Amino acid sequence: MAVNPPLLFVVAPATQLPQGSTSLEALQEAQASGPSTGFALRIFSRGAAHPDLGLLPLDGSLTGDKRRNSEGTQLLCDAVVVGIQPQHHWLGVYGGDPEDPSVLHCLDCVALSELSNATCWFYPTHDGSFLSWERGLRLSLGPGSIADCPEELSRMPYDRSQISVLWSLLGDNASLTCVGLTYGGQRLDWPLRSRSSEAVATWGRFRVDNEADISLVVEDCITVFAASLADS
Fold it and tell me: pTM of whole model > 0.70?
């Protein structure tokens, strides 16, 4: 079976999703009307240190290229979570024309709220003490694609049942947060066309104890500011 042209995915309001035959430029314009906010998330093992959260850096940098600093702090998670809202956004799926790669065809348009759901875990599930860093983002995205798409999946015809909306508990939040989508078990990736960070970030200190009645407890949380704001 031949490999199909790569699928492209657009998350946007239903009225913005192109129908029928379309172009990459039209998909880029549609995606520009989709999610425009999100946040960067980093999680570190705490190591031997018990830092003053107010003295930690705004940019979330605690470790170097080797991902572990001299106190044993190690980067466990480094992610950008796009502000996808399943109650408002739809998903458009597009495939290329085998005869003319510049022409794309709409294969499906569906409300995210109608798709299957799955859970994943950003926060550690093993016992220990950890630090978390979050910073709000303004961003713009390009049309999405299947990250590291295996050849077997690329040979299969499009199937809506292969799509799942991913949800995760973040910190000690009581409700789940949408953290992305998958197709055929593979993450969908929307490339960042632009990104700017808010002038504040939030550091937290938490512990996980699977033997306790409440397995994850946030011990402390503080907002840090850019120097220009802190001095004003």
Answer: yes
